[in-house]
Every structure is written in C-alpha cells, then in structure tokens.
Amino acid sequence: MSVAARPYAPPPVPALRPRLANKQLLALFGVALAAVVGAAALAIALSGPGARPAPCPLDDPCGGPPAPPAPPLINQTPWRSADLGYQLEYDPAQWSKLSESGSTLQLKLVGDDLVLVIGGAPSAQASASSVAGSELDAIRGRVLSLSPDPAAENRILGPTVGYEPGVGGAYVATSNGNAGPGAPLWIAVMGATRGAVSAYAAVVTSESDSSARQNAYLAADEVLNTWTWPGG
Questions:
Q1: Is residue 107 predicted with pLDDT exceeding 70?
Q2: Which of 20-34, 76-90, 132-146, 160-174 has the least mean pLDDT?
Q3: With contact defined as beta carbons under 8 Å apart, do 77 and 91 qualify?
Q4: What is the mean pLDDT of residues 80-94?
Q5: What angle do CA 99, 91, 196 make, to 5 degrees?
Q6: In sequence order, what are the residues at sequence separation of 6 or more whose Cβ sits closer than 8 angstroms to the Cβ of residue 114?
Q7: Phi, psi of 110 (to 5 degrees)
Q8: Lower CB density within 10 Å: C or N end of the chain?
Q9: Rounded to whole angstroms, how far apart are CA atoms 72 and 214?
Q10: Closest Cα partner for 146 from 114, 172, 170, 178?
Q11: What is the spatial distance between Cα 67 and Cα 213, in angstroms, rounded to a whole number?
Q12: Distance between terminal CA atoms of the chain?
C-alpha cells in the first residue's frame, strides 16, 4: 500500500501591525504634549505681572502731581560760648532762654518746672570738680537743706558733659520761698574737662512725679547731646 504525499502548505504568517498605527500614536502623543505646554504657559501668564502699560504721552504725564517734599527738620537754635568756645543747640519751641553770658547759658523747659544751666572756666584755672563744685555752692545759696539724694534710682552713673567723662552727683533740697520752705527740689550737677576748657551742666526741677521728672531729664539730655567742645 502506498501513501500519497500531501501538497506542501506553508505555515500562516502572523499579521503585522500596520505602520500607520505607529504614526497615529506619535500624533496623539504630540497633541497631548502640546496641551500640557499650553496649560503651563497659560498658568505662567496668569500668575505673572500684568502687561506693561503703554508709555505716557509727553503732554500728559502719568502718575498725577509729584509728592510734596518731606517736612523740614526741627529748627534748632545754636548757642556758643563767646569766652570758652563750647556750643550746643536747643529747640526754641521746647526751651526758653532765661539768661546768658560769655560762658553761661540758662534755659527753662517750656511747660515744666525744670531749669538747665551750663557754664565753665579755662582748665588752667579750674578743674572739672572745681567748676561743678562752684555751681553746686551757688545752688546751695539759693535753696534750703541741700544734701545728696538718697534714692538709688536717682544716682548718676558715669557722669559726662559733651560725651567727656567727668564727675557729678544727684542732690535734693527745698526751695527757699519768701514765706519759708517751699517745694522739694531734685538737682543734678556734672562737670568735665577737655583740652583748655572745664565745663559743668546742672539741672534743677521741682517735678515730684518720678515719671514726669525722668522725661524732663531726657529733654535736658537731648540738649547736652548736641554739645561740641572747642576744636571739635
């Protein structure tokens, strides 16, 4: 018996995905990428500064009228010792001048019972202690019961005149009125020497409220902080 040979039939070839499908996929990816980039650009545009305004015409300036100038500084009154050359400044709206000479100046704080006195002498004739002591003696002759201030908070730590370290102290007394003893007084006297000049500063006040008295002392400090010794 013979077996007849079957005609050869090649195996089926698997179908390949057309190239067109890959092109479509790339196109879709490009569309998605463009959408993301567009959204990012929109977000940046919305969050960024607005569009630059159009320039103003030359005959119509933008922004309205110019701002008014800043207010001027407080007008200080300068004072200079004709005899010794030291000088300072004070606000005439805050201080009234009671008296002056070639070496001394006496100011009163407006609206407050405080007097500031400055003076001096050539250092060849008097030391810082001498000029401060002389002023303290002059005050003692006009008041009653002058003595060191026992209150620790009124103690003068590091006395200076015109930023020059010196000597000084705090005192209490009673005013000497025509009808007898008057109001209590708080007194501070300081002296310092620089170069050819010895100078003093004294403050006398009857302000009994400690807070108001400290404010008055601060006003006196503002004047003394403008002090300039001769020769700078």
A1: yes
A2: 20-34
A3: yes
A4: 97
A5: 60
A6: 108, 203, 204, 205, 207, 216, 219, 220
A7: -65, 130
A8: N
A9: 28
A10: 172
A11: 41
A12: 142
Q: Quote the DSSP letter at residue 228.
A: B
**Token pair listed for 119:** 């003076």
**pLDDT per residue as tens digits for the range 171-219:** 999 999 776 678 999 999 999 999 999 999 999 999 999 999 999 999 9
Strands 95-100 and 87-90: unpaired
pTM: 0.68
For residues 103 and 168, the answer to whether their CB atoms sit within 8 Å is: no
224 backbone dihedrals φ, ψ, rounded to 5°: -65, -25
Q: What is the largest CA-CA distance in the chain?
A: 168
Q: Which two tokens stand for residue 201?
A: 């500063």
217/201 Cα distance (integer angstroms): 12
Query: What pLDDT score was predicted for residue 181?
Result: 76
Backbone angles phi, psi at 43, to 5 degrees: -65, -40
204 touches 171 (CB < 8 A): no
